[in-house]
Amino acid sequence: MATYVLLVKEEETKDFVVYKFGPDEDSLGKIKLSKSDGECEEIENVPGSTTNFYYLRAASKLIRILKESNGVFPDRTSYAS
Fold first, then answer.
1. Residue-wise pLDDT tens digits, 32-71
2. Could you give the number of structural domains in the chain?
3. For residue 7, which of 23, 16, 15 has the smallest C-alpha distance?
4. Domain interval for residue 76
5. Is the distance from CB of 61 to CB of 67 less than 8 angstroms?
6. How do residues 10-31 score in pLDDT, each as one tens digit?
7. pTM score of the predicted model
């Protein structure tokens, strides 16, 4: 079974970035990544989700971007496996 998580940037400052994330544009939670230490925080749960499945995948994608893309965060991206 394929896994897909959509991430859409909502806000970015020099200290953090906030993305909406979820399985599609109709079911999005919010995640915040601290650029200084790579810590992620779930701000809003994905509606209808009872686990942290989408959050964990969104967090791993954002941490990878922080480490591999020199902190250049795209407006839209996704996690897929």
1. 999 999 999 999 999 999 999 999 999 999 999 999 998 8
2. 1
3. 23
4. 4-80
5. no
6. 999 999 999 999 999 999 999 9
7. 0.94
